[in-house]
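Listing S7. Sequence submitted for prediction.
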Amino acid sequence: MSLEDFAQSHHLEPRWIELRSQCNHIVGQPDFWYRKDLRDSARELAVQASNILAASMKAS
């Protein structure tokens, strides 16, 4: 299932897809595990996406 399909089936706002896509791009970089700045950036995006998902699940 794609991110778009998941978001649509769970009625997530478009911002969730954007956050997940940005996070996936960061963690896909070859030096991700060696750079604290990349890990911190990915963590921040993941937390924001997680908060959107949690709020959506709670509202359902």
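Caption to Listing S7: primary sequence and predicted structure tokens for the chain studied. The mean pLDDT is 94. The helical segments are 3-9, 14-27, 36-59.
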